[in-house]
Design a protein that fits this description.
6-stranded parallel sheet; 5-stranded mixed barrel; 37% helix; globular; binds S-adenosyl-L-homocysteine; binds iron/sulfur cluster; binds FE3-S4 cluster
Amino acid sequence: MQDRPLVPESEIHAQREFMDRVRLLAHRPQSYHIVTLGCQMNERDSETIAGMLDAMGLCQESVREKADLILYNTCCVRENAENRALGNVIWLKELKKERPEILICVGGCMTQEEGMARRMKEMYPFIDLVFGTHNMYRLPEYLFRLLSERHPVIEVVNSDGSIAEGLPEKRASKYSAFINIMYGCNNFCSYCIVPYVRGRERSRDPEMVLEEAKRLLDAGVQEITLLGQNVNSYMGGGSAFAELLYRLDRLGIPRIRFMTSHPKDLSEELIAAYAEIKSLMPHLHLPVQSGNNEILRRMNRRYTRERYLELVEKLRKACPDIGLTTDIIVGFPGETEQQFLDTLSLVEEVRFDSAFTFIFSPRKGTRAAEMPDETPYALKSERIQLLIDRQQAISREILLEQVGKVETVLVESVSARDAQSVGGKTPRSHMVNFPGNAEWIGRFMPVEIVSAGKNTLRGKILEG
Ligand code: SAH
Ligand code: SF4
Ligand code: F3S
């Protein structure tokens, strides 16, 4: 049985009424600007927030300083993410001196940290509205209260979390869309704060997911990315996620991607899906975190180096051209030189297309934050640099291997620097730039790869 705690329809309806009431207020803000920090979950949440603000009659303003309402959707996965959010907020204090009428709102994961809401109230009294990840759907009600009572609204609830369906949305792209299939995380990796700020795992009804996908497809979306902290645990794990992929494929969506998968839950059915489903793109982000079994055990990752390598082998057997990317943490408490070298050797062995690498950042309330950690930061920095250098060399070799191939690229954008150049991703998720024009955005183009840069490819349209 999978728990699916839906926000009652009557509550969503009540929020819709608040949207109408805000819209009719004479003194409501006219424009908004959202700053999104963190991962794709936050990006998707920001699309919902933008949808709600639009429904309240506000217009999106691209210049932050000009907006009447500035909203920060925050992240706290590492200390620097949090510092960025707080640094920004302090800067807003100055702006508020110049324009006292602007409204400053803070939402997202950081607000859910223990004691954070109280701290914000005491230290940053110029913030008008604080809400958490679990009550984001009540933003219209909070904004109404703020505008009618004219004093700050700080509302963060501690909860296992629920699912709010049927909220408005404003999608960032017309051709490539995120679809949330699940929320929260039950894994409690010992270093990670996400389960504390995003609540327990809960999955959306597959019929709702399919309905959303169908609607997007009808509106011209060419690529969907399914989102969840651990999409493999969808509906409690097993083959449910792979089944969802088959059903989405049958709808006729040209390209399907997803993130993120946890190695411990990567099912045989999902591996088989890579061989069978044409619309499933040959790319998998599979965070490994470390190449050493003792560190993996202390991270509570529940797989071994050997198991991870076995999964990689099976995936490559099912889908020889699959591109693998990963996340790695360097300097976990007590990590020895040898244990770090095990990570380096795993990177050599797997040959990831790319890797996000992080120095361990202690997060209050997590188990790893309490573990003794004697390694000096400078040594951790040296280690991560070694890893980055090695990975960059491998990434470059893999990019060079793509030269000469012809790939179908979904054109996503015009280059900011050169209006005659467009960019998009290959099926394997490599970015390619090539001469073209804005009319091609949202179309699939046959592109011959002509050269490889540091992180991206260059190509040219295949004529005839
Ligand atoms: N749910 C995803 C990852 C979410 S966080 C998964 O399990 O794969 C994204 C990445 O941030 C993690 O994969 C991890 O590498 C990194 N990370 C999380 N907590 C961290 C911490 N305390 N210090 C350093 N890196 C961390
Ligand atoms: Fe964090 Fe682990 Fe959950 Fe990923 S799986 S969000 S790293 S606890
Ligand atoms: Fe950050 Fe929250 Fe995502 S902590 S990484 S924005 S789930």
